[in-house]
Amino acid sequence: MKIAVNTLAAALYSLKYKLCGAIILLLLAAGATAAKQTSDNEPDLHVIRKQLLSAMKDGKVTDSLYRSLSALKNKAPVITGYLATLEALKAKHAWNPYFKMKYLNDSEKTFESAVIGDPHNMEIRFLRFSVEHNLPDFLGRNKNLDADKDEIMAQLNKKNYTKADNHLVKTIINFLLNSNRCSPAEQENLNQHLAALQ
User: What is the pLDDT of residue 72?
Assistant: First the structure.
């Protein structure tokens, strides 16, 4: 049992490095924006993406951003997707294996809620894909990878980027290309989309 717990702890600790890379790509695409809310009182997604970069490195920032987003009333599904990502980051920052698993369970449920709320939102699907892609396979927490990849591909083909700007769309495409989870035909399709965005 002790070996299993140590293996789990080591695998979840490695999530720290893998998840950080995926989120850094997302945030670099977002660019720097001053903290503000949009005119309809929704938080600015560019700001949230930027704050997520700090949250990756600091558990206190993760907790603060999580509390801030949790306090919002009538959350858009994409905000729920960011809450799920923050729960995965809470798992990264936790030192106790029990809490690591609790936060991963919470993240999985929250992602499900976000996807139900907006099943065609490419950003939500990308957030979940990037978290599941970086989790160790033995945890069995990567069951949505194909569905998320397929939905992202479908939305790219429709050019339905929702609130994602061209930089974020390029980041999503590059992440999929580098994930080694796409067929040669899908890679060719992604490269065509990437070329069209240049």
Answer: 93
